[in-house]
């Protein structure tokens, strides 16, 4: 007897057909038994599986099929068990078709396998790289094809395009049959245009205008200049961040009850544009009626934190300052020895008077110790390079301030695109595990550069720099600069943790050719080497020292040059040791807006060689943030050269002032000059002072343009030579002007327009100073 139990292409059909076949078989068997009741019992068909035969399989092993079927020889022909086995086989995704046959007492499992994928191909993807699509897909070469997985991957591809703003993208999957039951899976992609945000609206904003609020959020309306970024592309994650930005902005202006009721984006019918709407509830504006600190810490029950808090009674409520005050209190208490504290600001509103009574409630926090520090994500960077930046180790008391400082130090390394430090519960209530997750970025650079500056003229440079050599945190660099007024080649190496201590060591080898023809009618060629070491005295206080050996050559002295320069033509050796003490708590070393920088240095020349002097210098700048894109800075400096053993200071060792130091004056334009030739002679003493106010220009932030108004002052004077044609004065020179700084995609651009207010008749001035540079 041959009975077909089921042939399935769908799990529901499989179950129904299986049950129907079994019922029919049993019905026929019952009829036969009634009709031939007199027949011998030995002739009744057995209800036991005698053998299981598997047919049609090519890649899937018979043992695998038997395992999923769940039946074996000797089992009864049970419709429930057979139904379960059929569903299990189909659920594997291995088969396009399954057919079960009963031939006598044999169960035949006949399968048609799904094809395997030979390769996955993308066509039409010009905006998104193939590798970025491949890593999102579930189906890959050598995996088993199923229609459900293809549809799932199509949705993934569409999600990728929607995240990039392309909501009209379409994906059409196609199969190309190959031999041996294999297929090529081709995704034909039509990318479509980017759907831009064309309108941003606010409902409920009575205090601030729509234009002002548009300047607060990251999402922006489509404009022609926004090719520099993608803020006018719709991004749901960015919209969530915009809600937080609005909350911060309103709470910083006194609106403590502010809420974003809803934020939604409506896609245009043709899917090429978005309309974004924020519904706001501003609430009243609050003033602080009182600011108090309540402490339950032993030994700090009546603390005086007036110098730490940023909030004061009578001020408008500012949520940002409240958060900063909590951080400042945590840090201050940590410095006083209280590592475990819990600080929560309590707000008591008086809605009749629109005031808030603010209390910082300080309570002892649970004593928690660091059980373990886990580091993940560092494929290239060695663990020890990351661990040595930690301000705490396993077994130390947990300290949020030190952990925040650790995260800042790791970011400052420049090795990582992202640093995230989180904590989780340890093996006991008083234990915590610190998890450090980093995402590495490329630390090697091969740079080609071009630019122009008033100091050097047109320039080009090529260089190589690796700041994380072999993942050990070492730095190696090589650079060549070729400019009209400066030619330079240098090679340097730095080991930041020499002898496994917080002691940096390194060297620089260089050759420089400087063209001083315009200022002083000569060229200066220097070949030298510098050996240097440095260490931290405190967290933000470093001390460094060095030895330098420099071979200088004053050449190409013009016949019309000053006699004071002609007398110094030729070679001289400078052998010097020096040290520098630096305090630096700026928030950003490259574009600071807050913090203080101070450098005090000394240099002694006279360890052999021809130069013999003692040099003292001081430089300092203080940055004061006032508001977004508003920064006020005060800078100053001074220097003094003292000749030793009766030796005069050579022109190649003197100070030169002008250019960027006192804008409105040419390079080396301030200080002693030969009045008969107009050659700059340099000087042995100087002082500098500068005030600068940076401010926004009212343009979109993404353009990266800021304005600056400045006032510079200073002087350079005193040389060893004496004569009737030497112009020398310590009187202050003063200049004022305006500038524009542009953080362009092609590199930083700075234009300064300055006019001297006070000068000497022998000084050299200039009206415009321009610098531009790019690296690619």
Walkthrough of the structure:
With 776 residues, the protein is an alpha+beta fold. The chain has six domains: 2-113, Roll (Ubiquitin-like (UB roll)); 116-190, Ubiquitin-like (UB roll) (Roll), CATH 3.10.20.310; 196-281, membrane protein fhac (Ubiquitin-like (UB roll), Roll); 287-364, membrane protein fhac (Ubiquitin-like (UB roll), Roll), CATH 3.10.20; 369-440, Ubiquitin-like (UB roll) (Roll); 444-775, Beta Barrel (Porin), CATH 2.40.160.50. Helix content is 17%, strand content 44%. The chain is built from twelve helices and 35 strands. It has a 16-stranded antiparallel barrel. A four-stranded mixed beta sheet has the order 1-3-4-2. A three-stranded mixed beta sheet has the order 5-7-6, with helices on one face. The longest helix is centred in the N-terminal third of the chain and has 25 residues, at 11-35. The model is unreliable at 6-45 (pLDDT under 50).
């Amino acid at each position: 007897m041959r009975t077909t139990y089921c042939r399935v292409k769908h799990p529901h059909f499989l179950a129904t057909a299986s049950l129907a076949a079994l019922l029919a078989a049993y019905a026929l068997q019952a009829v036969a038994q009634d009709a031939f009741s007199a027949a011998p019992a030995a002739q009744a068909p057995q209800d036991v599986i005698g053998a299981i035969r598997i047919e049609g399989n090519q890649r899937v092993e018979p043992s695998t099929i038997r395992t999923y079927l769940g039946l074996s020889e000797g089992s009864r022909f049970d419709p429930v068990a057979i139904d379960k086995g059929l569903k299990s086989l189909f659920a594997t995704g291995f088969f396009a078709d399954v057919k079960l046959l009963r031939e006598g007492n044999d169960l035949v499992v006949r399968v048609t396998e799904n094809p395997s994928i030979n390769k996955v191909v993308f066509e039409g993807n010009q905006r998104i790289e193939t590798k970025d699509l491949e890593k999102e897909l579930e189906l890959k070469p050598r995996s088993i094809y199923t229609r459900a997985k293809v549809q799932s991957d199509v949705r993934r591809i569409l999600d990728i395009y929607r995240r990039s703003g392309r909501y009209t993208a379409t994906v059409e999957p196609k199969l190309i049959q190959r031999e041996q039951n294999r297929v090529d899976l081709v995704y034909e992609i039509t990318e479509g245009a980017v759907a831009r945000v064309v309108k941003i609206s606010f409902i409920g904003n009575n205090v601030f205008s729509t234009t002002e609020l548009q300047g607060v959020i990251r999402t922006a309306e489509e404009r022609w200049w926004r090719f520099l970024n993608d803020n006018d592309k719709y991004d749901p994650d960015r919209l969530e961040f915009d809600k937080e930005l609005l909350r911060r902005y309103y709470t910083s202006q006194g609106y403590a009850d502010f809420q974003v009721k809803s934020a939604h984006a409506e896609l245009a019918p043709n899917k090429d544009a978005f309309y974004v709407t924020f519904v706001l509830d501003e609430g009243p504006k609050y003033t602080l009626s009182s600011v108090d600190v309540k402490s339950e810490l032993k030994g700090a029950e009546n603390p005086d934190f007036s110098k730490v808090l940023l909030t004061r009674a009578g001020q408008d409520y500012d949520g940002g300052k409240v958060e900063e005050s909590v951080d400042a209190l945590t840090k201050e208490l940590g410095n006083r020895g209280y590592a475990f504290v819990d600080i929560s600001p309590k707000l008591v509103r008086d809605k009749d008077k629109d005031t808030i009574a603010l209390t910082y409630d300080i309570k002892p926090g649970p004593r928690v110790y660091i059980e373990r520090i886990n580091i993940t994500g560092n494929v290239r960077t060695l663990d020890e390079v990351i661990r040595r930046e930690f301000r705490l180790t396993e077994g130390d008391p947990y300290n949020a301030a030190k952990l925040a400082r650790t995260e800042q130090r790791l970011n400052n390394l420049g090795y990582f695109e992202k640093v995230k430090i989180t904590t989780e519960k340890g093996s006991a209530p008083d234990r915590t595990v610190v998890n450090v997750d980093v995402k590495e970025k490329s630390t090697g650079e091969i740079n080609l550069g071009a630019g122009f500056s008033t100091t050097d003229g047109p320039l080009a440079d090529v260089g190589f720099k690796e700041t994380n050599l072999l993942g050990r945190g070492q730095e190696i660099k090589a650079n060549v600069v070729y400019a009209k007024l400066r030619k330079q080649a240098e090679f340097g190496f730095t080991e930041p943790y020499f002898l496994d201590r917080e002691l940096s060591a390194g060297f620089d080898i260089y050759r420089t050719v400087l063209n001083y023809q315009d200022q002083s009618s000569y060229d200066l060629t220097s070949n030298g080497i510098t050996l240097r070491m440095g260490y931290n005295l405190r967290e933000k206080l470093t001390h460094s020292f060095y030895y330098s050996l420099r071979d200088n050559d004053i050449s190409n002295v013009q016949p019309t040059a000053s006699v004071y320069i002609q007398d110094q033509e030729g070679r001289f050796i400078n052998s010097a040791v020096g040290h520098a003490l630096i305090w630096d708590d700026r928030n950003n070393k490259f574009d600071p807006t807050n913090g203080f920088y101070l450098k005090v240095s000394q240099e002694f020349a006279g360890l052999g060689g021809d130069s013999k002097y003692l040099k003292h210098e001081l430089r300092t700048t203080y940055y004061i943030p006032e508001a977004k894109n508003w920064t006020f800075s005060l800078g100053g400096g001074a220097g003094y050269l003292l000749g030793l053993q009766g030796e005069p200071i050579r022109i190649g060792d003197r100070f030169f002032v002008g250019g960027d130091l006192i804008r409105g004056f040419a390079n080396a334009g301030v200080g002693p000059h030969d009045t008969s030739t107009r050659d700059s002679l340099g000087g042995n003493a100087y002082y500098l002072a500068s005030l600068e106010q940076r401010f926004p220009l009212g343009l979109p932030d993404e353009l990266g343009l800021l304005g600056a108004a400045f006032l510079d002052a200073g002087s350079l004077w005193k040389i060893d030579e004496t004569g009737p044609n030497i112009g020398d004065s310590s009187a202050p020179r003063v200049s004022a002007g305006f500038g524009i700084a542009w953080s362009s995609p092609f590199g930083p651009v700075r234009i300064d327009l300055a006019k001297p207010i006070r000068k000497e008749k022998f000084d050299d001035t200039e009206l415009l100073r321009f610098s531009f540079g790019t690296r690619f």
